[in-house]
Amino acid sequence: MHPNAQLIEQFYQAFQKLDAAAMCACYTDDIQFSDPVFTDLRGNDAGDMWRMLTSRAQDFSLVFDQVEANDTEGSAHWVASYCFSQTGRHVVNDIHAKFTFRDGKICRHRDHFDLWKWSRQAMGWKGYLLGRLPLVQNKIRHLAAKNLRKFSEKK
């Protein structure tokens, strides 16, 4: 197995244990992370996102597969199941990740998932009816950024 594939597996094994410190140890100091909610996190902000999410996780489980990597790029598929703390609703989020590597660590991490599908699960009928609207998706992003700022300030 390529060392970068092992690094991806190490990242997700740490995530399965909700070990944000071990997850962040897989990243370069200048990591660039994005997904449909957190569209551009860099450096400590990316680490704080994982620290926030793992510290708040309820009824959490994660499986991953399709790990592939070479010297510069990699990818994986993962599925997280958890209780969304703000509504108490159960979410199963199916995610495809892409990675870029530098000096034996992840320097770029891009997660892709269907935000409307997520909003239907997390917010129920409101997410189903309104979750495709850019206004609602931007509100989800704004609230997530606000929660991350509050979490980071408490450190």
TrEMBL record:
InterPro entries: NTF2-like_dom_sf (IPR032710), SnoaL-like (IPR037401)
Stretches assigned to the SnoaL-like domain: 8-109
Protein name as it appears in the record: Nuclear transport factor 2 family protein
Natural source organism: Undibacterium flavidum
